[in-house]
Amino acid sequence: MADPVFAATVKVLLDKLLSLTIKEINSSRDCNEDLEMFTQNVSLIQAFLHDVETPQVEKQQSVEQWLRRLERVAENAENVFDRFKYESLKTKVMNIRNSPMKKVSGFFTHTAFKSKMSRKINSINKELTAINSVAKDLGLHSLIVPSRKIFPIRETDSLVVAPDVVGRDLDVAEIKEKILKMREEDVVMCTIPIVGMGGLGKTTLAKRIYNDEHIKQIFEKRIWLCLPEMSETKSFLEQILESLTERKTEVQRRDIIVKKLQDELGGKNYLLVLDDLWCVDSTSWHEFVDTLRGINTSIGNCILVTTRMKRVASTVATDLHILGKLTEDHCWSIFKQKAFVDGRAPEELASMDNKIVKMCQGGNKIVKMCHGLPLAASVLGGLLHNKEKHEWQAILDGNPIVAGEDDNGENSIKKILKLSYDYLPSPHLKKCFAYFAMFPKDSKRSYV
Ligand SMILES: Nc1ncnc2c1ncn2[C@@H]1O[C@H](COP(=O)(O)OP(=O)(O)OP(=O)(O)O)[C@@H](O)[C@H]1O
Ligand SMILES: [Mg+2]
What we know:
Layout: H1 4-27, H2 32-52, H3 55-58, H4 61-97, H5 100-137, H6 169-184, E1 189-195, H7 202-210, H8 213-218, E2 221-225, E3 229-230, H9 233-245, H10 254-265, E4 270-274, E5 279-280, H11 282-295, E6 301-307, H12 310-316, E7 321-322, H13 328-339, H14 347-350, H15 354-362, H16 364-370, H17 374-384, H18 389-396, H19 400-403, H20 409-422, H21 427-436
Parallel strand pairs: 1-6, 1-7, 2-4, 3-5, 4-6
Helix pairs in contact: 1-2, 1-4, 1-21, 2-5, 4-5, 9-10, 9-11, 13-16, 13-17, 16-17, 17-20
This protein binds adenosine-5'-triphosphate (ATP) and magnesium ion.
Keywords: ATP-binding, Leucine-rich repeat, Nucleotide-binding, Plant defense, Repeat
GO molecular function, one term: ADP binding
Organism: Solanum tuberosum (Potato)
């Protein structure tokens, strides 16, 4: 599998090479044609690299080999450029210091060096051309748009089985209070962002509020949208209209969409949930909100946003609802719901051995492993549903991967949390993150 950290490392290396060559092209005339060719080749490969991290491609072993080959060439190129830089600098210094005779001999050694370098860069270019054509054979796409701009589409819906949600009563009360307060204060519309890491239960909380009986009474219209990126206001308005009319809108002018929205929403209070927003720019957001305010001028409308990204939350509002972790008791209760039929440990399991009995009584070890993350509790519970004693034992020994070998429960936690890694804004940050992953948990470092 093409390791995403490895892909990030190669990207950083190529970025560094590009900046080195561009500086070199600007500052000296040596080997410029070869260097320009090199820059073109690397830029082409970078476009393929954006595709390497897409989920369909990520798992191909041949892509991993392709990356390794690219890394070798990039390292080789780095060495060549280092040497190149060193020699150019040395020649400059010698020219300043030396007599005219020495300058002539220096010229000849420099010319010999230049042709040697030219040969080396040429051979790197040939290898890069080959790597480029292998990329095409592997079916990699040349993505000019950086991959971080492609946001995950994970469609959610507004339905929820109420008794399943635990430990969020305070959050629900707090958000409802904010909504009621803004109605009292005659505010036309308020935006409440729920922010927190992946799997913390933002969507679950938003669903709880969306389906709350009191909320249903307050808001005549409720709209649930799950769109990762707000770049164009019109498409957001279009989606709201589609959701309200439950009909696909034909391609229409913005003006017509806004008029139709006015027909649907005019004079009615609405709650709009934007679930899982990853990216929004301030201008688009304010344009969007202004348009909504124009469509419906009555007081007491609300937009609820869920997001992992604090900067998204701060773009849409100043008062953020930062979601906290669940208590151990609540995690244990989620775990039990998933692991046992009717949420109760079966007799035969409870009597297996002491450790399991203890765990079934308090869930101690299991809940500690969840770190207050409902997703982890839910996935671990599902993982151990109908499992044998040795698999429970593997969990107790702190090795959920073993327990999940024949299951993809563990993978699903990683997959969900890895999204946050995938959408870090630059390969440098990814590399930095990977660097920290080398240190054991809780280890203290006084330097970075
Ligand atoms: N309070 C809760 N009680 C019971 N289960 C919960 C609770 N919160 C979350 N879960 C469960 O945890 C899982 C993850 O929750 P959810 O999808 O709401 O997280 P999220 O914060 O929206 O994650 P993401 O950032 O990936 O969108 C879901 O399967 C959900 O059922
Ligand atoms: Mg969510």
